Amino acid sequence: QVQLVESGGGLVQPGGSLTLSCTASGLTFDAVAMAWFRQAPGKEREGVSCTNYDGGVATYADSVKGRFTISKNLDKNTLYLQMNSLKPEDTAVYYCAADDNYYKLLNGVAEYVGQGTQVTVSS
Hints:
By secondary structure, this protein is mainly β. It is about 5% helix and about 50% strand.
């Protein structure tokens, strides 16, 4: 049974930083691509960032490029999203996702999606 468990969300002031973590089990972590999606209230889910099976390739949405960094720790079966210079418009539920097809993730489709963690950016 595949499980993706996110953590690290919370309330942060504009300009602040947070690091999200996603611990994966039940899948071959170094053989799947992974991604972070987010969904703000009243909006559709959108892709934030994707990385390939070994973490060597990463893509970012234009809205977060230069501020967010995705990474995989293959020894810990954990995906991270380092978020800097946070803005109120980054407020959303952030979801970890996995699929063996990187290009599906780029299009916002994933076989496995976690339960999400809330990130709120507000003063």
